């Protein structure tokens, strides 16, 4: 089961050529992860960071830019979990527009305590919610 969200490419996302400026994809990826946490994992980033004093910073991002996206495109971000460790989660995010792949991203986030800033185990309830998005190992990532 993938988590999906749609994001329309706005003027703030594009460069002078009218295509998405690559760092803006990373902002949209973070938005996707944030929406996943709130809609499917049962905790908003406000609850996680400010109330729970935890965070999920990106520790690795690999990106393949397949085709340019332009102002006005409606992008679909599909998120899957490819593995869950003690304190890390590996995600695959595929960005498409009208069924055409635009970007492939492998994102690793760490579950951390904010004080002190160090990794810590993913809570059992959060892990169980994440496991619903775990793709079988036979699927290409």
UniProtKB/TrEMBL annotation:
Q: Which GO terms describe its molecular function?
A: fatty acyl-CoA hydrolase activity
**Which branch of life, at top level?**
Bacteria
Xref: CDD domains = 4HBT
Query: Protein name, please?
Result: 4-hydroxybenzoyl-CoA thioesterase
Whose protein is this, by species? Roseiterribacter gracilis
């Amino acid at each position: 089961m993938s988590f999906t969200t749609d994001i329309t490419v706005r003027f703030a996302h594009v460069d002078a050529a009218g295509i998405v400026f690559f760092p803006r994809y990373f902002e949209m990826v973070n938005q996707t992860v944030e929406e996943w946490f709130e809609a499917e994992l049962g905790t908003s980033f406000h609850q996680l960071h400010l109330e729970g004093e935890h965070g999920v910073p990106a520790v690795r991002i690999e990106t393949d830019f397949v085709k340019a996206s332009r102002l006005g495109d409606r992008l679909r971000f599909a998120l899957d979990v490819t593995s869950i460790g003690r304190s890390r989660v590996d995600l695959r995010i595929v960005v498409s527009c009208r069924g055409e792949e635009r970007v492939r991203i492998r994102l690793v986030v760490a579950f951390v305590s904010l004080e002190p800033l160090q990794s810590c185990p993913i809570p059992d309830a959060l892990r169980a919610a994440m496991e619903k998005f775990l793709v079988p190992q036979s699927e290409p990532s």
